[in-house]
Amino acid sequence: MTANAPSPTRIDGKYDVLRELSREGDVTLSEVRAAEGVTRTVAWFTITSPAGRHVFHTYRAVLRALNPAGLTDVVARPGAYYTVWQALAGTPLGAFVGQSVKPAEAVDALRTLAARLAEHGYALPDADIVVDGHDARIAYLRALDTPRPPEEVAALNAPVLTALDGGRVRRRRTPGAWLAFVPGVLFLAGAGYLGAQAAQTYLNPPVREVVDVTGQEAQAAARKLSALGFRVEYTQGQAGGRAIGSVIRQEPASGTNLPLGRLVTLTVNNPPATDVPRLEEMNLSQAKDALKDRAMVLGKVVKVDGTLTNTPEGRIVAQLPEPGSAAQRGQQVQVMVSTGVAGKETWLPLLTGLTVEQAKQHARAAGLVVTQVKEQPSEKVQGTVLAQTPAAFVRVAAGSPVVLTVAVARYSAPSSPTDSLPLPPVYVPPTPVQPEPAQPEAPETTPDTTTPDGTASTDGTSPTDGTATPVTPETIPATPGTSTPDTTSPETTTPDTAATAARNVTFRYTFPANLPDGSYSVIVRDADGEREIMPAADAGALRGLAATSASTAVSGDAVFVIRKDGVDYATVTP
């Protein structure tokens, strides 16, 4: 069971806290202002276990028995356990003990109060006591975990009681003591008159019929018989199936003629009291069995939230009457049953200005999970948090999702969708052409020949008659040149491999605020084909969103394609 500490400004929605007076263990004492404007003192108890609830209920029983003058209210319900006290006029006990002359009546009142406190295991130092005239009143009583043993109570009371005996005690004198004989005279005169009347009634008593009062409530039956002139006396008895406090028999029986003033004895159904069993932490079935053993029954069942008391679902949080209190057989016991423990709550600090990693660390420390990081163009430092959901210091259930908005450099998206870029044609290398071999050229002229007589013959005929010796020509024709075929392979064009080199690109795009309804996804198209980088999402979640993907490896020319319902909607060049 858990009861949260009071709000720093308001307690239970009724008391405004002015200041905190003290804090002792699980009890916080605060000065408050009530709704009617008066000042009160509230003692708030932080209850964290069934044992703590038992201590408070025992303390409440002591308050009911003592009925302190300073007590104005006691509240005991799941999540709120506190007492309210008012200031009392009078002399504090310490100042009264120090007086040289003390009224005897006040001293007697203090001794009586000390005895009453000792009956419940409390000593005088456990209470704030004021003396007002001849009365000793309790202004505040501190709660004890367990009652003090008699020896400890006597030891704590001894210094105060001894101090009361110090100094003089002033006895009050009764004026008119000489008139004490007057009541005696009047008594004797009245007795004589009544005796005469009784003698006359006894000698000539009137007679009346005794009416039937069985089954009626005892006091109502007694009033009816007394009105007829009979005396009534009660005796205790028990009968199953009869209401407690009702008359189960009468003597003499109804219809009897009886002289007035005679005695009628009524037997009242009053079975012996039993202790209320402890039902807390039980389920309803176990509680019914426990009550049945004590001849009691289960009464009203109220379901309450078990978060504050940390009580599992179906288990009893509190009961009325309290455990251990006296009750009659057949009495009903009301219980509060837990509906279960809700998730614990937590909150985030202000994350604005932190890096994403720092913000995630804070979220983990608070028991929350960062599920989405949105990027937003901003002039702030890139990578710092601009906004957070949930907002700072707002209580949420542990494990709730956290959305961070992070600053990125500003980027302008295309104003209108563009068509897809055409793919380059497939490269086809040219076919090499083999060269033809060169043919040798024939000589253009025949060398001149000289005749013996010195004349040259140009017609190409041989000298006649052998009279002249042929002369070697001045020039010898050159050997016809032969052309060697070019065996070098024709130059071929190698495709540019730089165009297909791998690289990393990032998709950045701000969806327009008037994005048409539909389901949108994003793919990347490159030399290796197409692949999805952003799963399909509804247009309502994308309108105005500045989307950024993780770095994606591509080959060759790449383009991002935004598809609406599976059809290309827009393209974005990285």
TrEMBL record:
Residues 204-270, 271-339, 343-408 form the PASTA domain. The chain crosses the membrane at residues 177-196. SMART domains: PASTA. Keywords: Membrane, Transmembrane, Transmembrane helix. Residues 441-462, 477-499 have a biased composition (Low complexity). Residues 413-499 are annotated as: Disordered. Pfam families: PASTA. PROSITE patterns: PASTA. Residues 422-440 have a biased composition (Pro residues). The keyword Acetylation does not apply. Residues 463-472 have a biased composition (Polar residues). This is Beta-lactam-binding protein with PASTA domain. It comes from Deinococcus metalli.
